[in-house]
Amino acid sequence: MSELPDFKDLLPMSTADKMRTTKSLKWSTGVQLPCFVAQMDFQPAPAIRQALSEWALEGDLGYQPPALLKSFQEAIADYYSDLGWQPERSHIRPVSDLVTLFEQVLDAFLPEGQPLILLTPTYMNFLTLAHDSGRPLRTVSMVRNVADNCWDIDWDGLASAMTDGGMLVLISPHNPIGKSYTREELARIAELAAKSGVRVFADEIHAPIMLGDGQHVPFAGVSPEAHKVALTAFSATKGFSIPGTKAAALIFSNPQDVSVWKPKSMRVEFGTATSGLVATAAALNHGRQWLTEACDYLRSNRDLVAELTKEYLPGAIFIPPESTYLAWLDVRGTANYEQYRANAERSLARNLANACGVLPTDGEECGPEGVGHIRVNFATHRDTVVKIFQALGSALSPR
């Protein structure tokens, strides 16, 4: 097995037996090895806990203090500046979470009857919200590049879907497949969007978790066209293990969008938790070393998943993600897949949970391309990762 990196600030990270005592959402499902929700089992950076403790003991617990909002905005602006794009501080608007943010963006920026375009497989809630919105839905399947063991965009399919306005949802980095888009790919998307009058909702909430050699490339900063068409979503909650603090940001790069948003601002922005403003600023200002250690550990776990897939799930296909802590597994080639595939009563994921105690995200929730796939969260203790794949192998590929 691959060597475990030395890490300090992630401790004490608990094994599965200990995590069950925390009663978190993830570990309160009743199954032995839950790995469905995109949440780390890592302890947050000490600086985040310290900032929250000081705020709770000494800070203002009323509605959003302007000084905290400013520190939240400045921390995000500085974070993006380090990535090569400098958003205007006042154009960074707080929203409680990604789902709420996306709902409000659809309402404000996508007229009724205009198409919503998704690159699939996609984050499952985007599919649900797309159907609920009543907008026409167009999907473009990502292409598995067998030769290079990576994911490519179907450029002809995307161009065909972006012919008459609407909005493209660009998950960058891409949940659930873990693709990290290159600057050239992002610029080409922006060019297509600008030509066709398509807005691009760039979901960048997994941006801090980079497992390759490079850093995240912000969509809005790749070209003047991207700057004009982008509506960027960001949150530190996924990357810094603080999802319960409830804070995300909608970042405007096109100044005209600020006036469109303004009628919503008071009602929507006040739903952001003050604790989230505090935690986000602390994470981005003082949690970078923690993040480096977390990514080192996740990189090791990612490589471990590749080894475990070969050992315990022969016939499964796994393309190692370049970002995120999510493993997208095609298990249709495993020996016992037909026994556990989705049926009229239960999904593949639920059948596996009943058989071996592992509860992943069911791939079909991410689009039709996800049939026979599962999404496994590997942001957990290394021993737990091993147990997950041993259990999956006992069901899908028994020895």
What report would you give on this structure?
The chain is of the alpha/beta class. The protein is 41% helix and 15% strand. It has 14 helices and 15 strands. The strands form four sheets. A seven-stranded mixed sheet has the order 2-10-9-8-7-3-4, sandwiched between helices. A four-stranded antiparallel sheet has the order 11-12-15-14, covered by helices on one side. The protein has a two-stranded parallel sheet with strand order 1-13. Helix 2 runs antiparallel to helix 10, helix 3 (66-82) packs parallel to helix 10 and helix 4 (98-109) packs parallel to helix 5. The longest helix is centred in the C-terminal third of the chain and has 25 residues, at 288-312. The two termini are 20 Å apart. The mean pLDDT is 94.
Key attributes of the depicted protein:
alpha/beta, globular, four-stranded antiparallel β-sheet, 14 helices, 41% helix, 399 residues, seven-stranded mixed β-sheet, 15 strands
